[in-house]
Amino acid sequence: MDNTKLEDLYQTAKNWVYEAGEVIKRSFSNELNITYKSHYADLVTDMDKAIEKFFIDKIKKEYPDHEILGEEGYGDEVKDLDGTVWIIDPIDGTTNFVHQQNNFAISVGIFHNGEGKAAFIYDVVRNELFHCIKGNGLYLNEEKLPLLSEVTLDKAVIGLNATWITPNRKIDHHLLLPLVRKSRGTRSYGTAAIELAYVACGRLDAYMTMRLSPWDFAAGYILIQEAGGIISTMDGSKVKVLSKTSIFAAKPGLHQEILDTIHTGTPQDGE
Ligand code: IPD
Ligand code: CA
Ligand code: CA
Ligand code: CA
């Protein structure tokens, strides 16, 4: 894809993200239709579905050869990242959307032949759009943000959900306790997309979670790399964008320090 084509695609996608945000804002006065998916805490609303369909309609009309992977399943069965692939979470943070009408985001990542090309994470209520086109730097609305600089664990604030420091099937939770003790603090926002955007812009120094789906992290994956941050799985290996996976994003330097603390540290240290 040449630069003019990519720039056009980026502007078009950005307009759609803003438009989708307006649709969500207008919906605040309507009653939400809420249903459950896999279990009692896995909510979906009519808005999640409507916003996903909104993007799919637009993309299929304008770019019929592009593929779309969306959380609510209205897109394509995407098997690889050949060609142009959009990975969309229409509302990331549905629980927050339902309970708070705040702290949720639209997340859109665009890949071309395996490479992240453009990304958008739109915190609709705060009117904060984190976005990038590959190679042009990370933007928050109109402002270009600086590249991330190094920080040490004792000065770091880490995005970490309390689930992972209780016994769970994904990680020996003792391994994470030193991070809670040694860092400046931990936070949990209930929206992976915003947490990744916050790492990209420096509001968080790191974010980790043991289980995400492609639509949760695709845009954040692109934004973080554009900001000079590092994003991997929890054991430090390369992220497979189309897989369910653990995700660990951090500033340079801190990424290695945390891996060392987890994998070579003494688990009892934080107890
Ligand atoms: C969820 C949020 C949450 C994360 C969950 C996701 P959804 O996405 O990103 O922060 O912990 O794993 O499923 O369902 O609100 O789009
Ligand atoms: Ca969901
Ligand atoms: Ca999500
Ligand atoms: Ca979602």
UniProtKB/TrEMBL annotation:
Entry cofactors: Mg(2+)
Enzyme class: hydrolase
SUPFAM superfamilies for the chain: Carbohydrate phosphatase (SSF56655)
GO molecular function, one term: inositol monophosphate 1-phosphatase activity
Top-level lineage group: Bacteria
PROSITE patterns, alphabetized: IMP_1, IMP_2
UniProt catalytic activity: a myo-inositol phosphate + H2O = myo-inositol + phosphate
Entry binding sites for Mg(2+): E71, D89, I91, D92, D216
Keywords, alphabetical: Hydrolase, Magnesium, Metal-binding
GO process annotations (BP): inositol metabolic process; phosphatidylinositol phosphate biosynthetic process; signal transduction
Keyword Repeat: no
EC id: 3.1.3.25
Pfam family, one: Inositol_P
Protein name: inositol-phosphate phosphatase
Organism of provenance: Fictibacillus marinisediminis
